[in-house]
Design brief:
Blueprint lengths: L8 H9 L17 E2 L3 E3 L8 H17 L2 E5 L5 H15 L3 H6 L2 H4 L1 E3 L14 E6 L13 H28 L4 H7 L6 E7 L9 E6 L5 E6 L5 E5 L2 E5 L6 E5 L1 H6 L9 E4 L6 E8 L6 E2 L11 E2 H15 L11
Parallel strand pairs: 1-10, 2-3
Antiparallel strand pairs: 3-11, 4-5, 5-6, 6-13, 7-12, 8-11, 8-13, 9-10, 9-12, 14-15
Helix pairs in contact: 2-6, 3-6, 6-7
Length: 333
Amino acid sequence: MLVDSNPPLLHHYGALLHQPSDKNPQLHENHITEECQLPLIDLEGLKSHDVSYRLACASAICRASSEWGFFQVVNHGISSELIKKMRREQVKLFSAPFKKKQTSGLLNNSYRYGTPTATHPTQFSWSEAFHIPVSKISDQTCYGEFTSLREVMEEFSTAMSNLSKVLARVLINNLDKQEEAAGDICESSSCFLRLNRYPACPFSPEMFGLVPHTDSDFLTILCQDQVGGLQLMKDSKWVAVKPNPDALIVNIGDLFQAWSNDVYKSVEHKVMANEKTERYSIAYFLCPSYDSLIGSCRESSIYRKFTFGEYRSQIQEDVKKLGHKVGLSRFLI
């Protein structure tokens, strides 16, 4: 007997379609979305003995963070062999029966699918994920029968953590801030690793794999396959990101936007589901501790100070009440 590994996304989405609503049930208008090439930055430049090369590389990172909020990096220090091993383990994990993923407490009981808070089809994400605290990755009890996953995840998470710290320090130094700021921002024990799977969807391209949002961290590093589907808001229109097999994608989160006083931009993005092909990605979220105070690095601040815990609580409250995240506008002075 075949065991279904897919979560009941169609069932939950169908229930939303049949709920009374004064809104049009169509998800969104199907505009032609142009494909873009994100700024591509060779991180080998940061290791150069030539000061001018190092400065040019750092400048490119900061410029992309201000103008796009997104960029790609190559020569990032994470080997293709490690990425392939991580992807194999990820595929094996998501191939497990749905009930096992949902009820066996895998990876700190971090499995989720769809959008439990959705009250309308436009709020529904056609995806499943494990959202794991980095602090739990070394815990043997989290893995059950997936014993080979632990070693690979530890290695992958450490590599992503190291890369995130390199990028964060570049962005911090650009605003003339010292190492104590880097220490507050680069607290790896409170970071997260998210394993994503976007099953093929019978009514793509009308379905979000992941609804439009900004990230609630300092920065995110994304390792994606070649299926595509990631889109971001640029110049008030959605543009599709062309996958690059050699690159990782980096985007600025809300906390870096607030900390930089809007110098760096946390940009809205989404994933569109694919009708025929499933998509896999892995995201590393650079987060501070929950009691870390987020304040502007500039004297004249746009935002009031807030803790990361306060910010997360406000997001959860907004999603519960409104069905979507409001974000930094809640904290404007």
